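Run Ribose 1,5-bisphosphate phosphokinase PhnN through structure prediction, thanks.
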Amino acid sequence: MAGRLIYLIGPSGSGKDSLLDAARARLAERGCRVVRRVITRSAEAVGEAALGVSMQEFAEMEAQGAFALSWHANGLAYGIPREIDDWLATGDDVLVNGSRGHLQNTHERYPDVIVLLLTVDQAVLRQRLLARGRESVVEIDQRLARNARFNERLLADSEPAVHLLDNSGPLEYTVERLLVCIDKPEA
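Sure, done. The structure for Ribose 1,5-bisphosphate phosphokinase PhnN is below.
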């Protein structure tokens, strides 16, 4: 039986990286691989443990077919290695830190994708973004407004179905909800 693609999406600052780090061992116990993305951000940049490459390296990798999925957002390029197709074919589930803006393309390529939207109370998200210090207050407020509009549109669209995970509280609670969402029903 083929594995399932699990596509985790959410705004910057929602805690996707923290959630994946906290859940990694328990996901592995369930036969679920967490994918390391390729990003055109320096390896020294704070955030997920992604493979940092230059824009030129990314373009070359993309042209050579190195990615199953790729997209551009916020001035960066993101790629999901094509080896996920091999993992899915051998029955492994694969969890991808994806993009809300690339969801439709992902759904076209992987029609049975399981979509998990990590949400956070706007006030909590604002505090997290301020603490990161990457953007000005004006930029953060603009990001929060875009996030609210984006999530509203995303949730109104029923295909594919989107499962909500609230990460406003303790991380362990969110890990438990993640595991419930992806656990396979007993045969």
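The beta strands are 5-9, 32-34, 38-39, 51-52, 67-73, 76-81, 93-97, 114-119, 162-166.
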